[in-house]
Amino acid sequence: MTEEKEISELDRRIVRLLQGDFPLVSEPYKALAAEIGIAEEELLARISSMRAEKKIRKMGAVLRHREVGFTANCLCVWDVPDVRVDEVAKRMAEHPRVSHCYDRNREDDWQYNLYTMIHGYSREECENIAAELAAATGVEDRRMLYTKREWKKTSMLYFTE
């Protein structure tokens, strides 16, 4: 059974705040803190505490790739020797055009165990990026599954009452 953790009203306000758009300014945390009437230092301390207390598991950005001009996007699946998955994933995740990189279990009818999401301005560019990744890691066996349709991207929202 999961231990229930008490979350203060201030922490709830901070979580609601962090679920919105991140301000594109030189001091984004100062701007966010001002929205709820606290100092930037207090906001950062509360975020740090909530992470340490496992009240916040992760924070991340959602790339709306089409809005920034990436029209060719593909999930590239790789057949990586199991003993090299961590090393290869780390290397591939460092590429600036790879937004996601994660491992999956193999299936009887699917040998691929590492998945990378590659964003480009053309299919040719995606192919070149995959070739770069292959050359950098020595892993050649891959399939490229191109995006055919954009799905609505939504995240869980907490404390919206």
TrEMBL record:
Residue ranges of every copy of the Siroheme decarboxylase NirL-like HTH domain listed in the record: 11-57
Annotated pathway: Porphyrin-containing compound metabolism
EC numbers, comma separated: 4.1.1.111
Enzyme class: lyase
Record carries keyword Kinase: no
Substrates-to-products reaction catalysed: siroheme + 2 H(+) = 12,18-didecarboxysiroheme + 2 CO2
Domain called Siroheme decarboxylase AsnC-like ligand binding: residue spans: 68-152
Keywords: Lyase
Claim: Protein transport is one of the keywords in the record: no
Domain of life: Bacteria
Signal peptide limits: none
Matching PANTHER family: SIROHEME DECARBOXYLASE NIRL SUBUNIT, TRANSCRIPTIONAL REGULATOR, ASNC FAMILY
Family from the record: Belongs to the Ahb/Nir family.
Protein name: siroheme decarboxylase
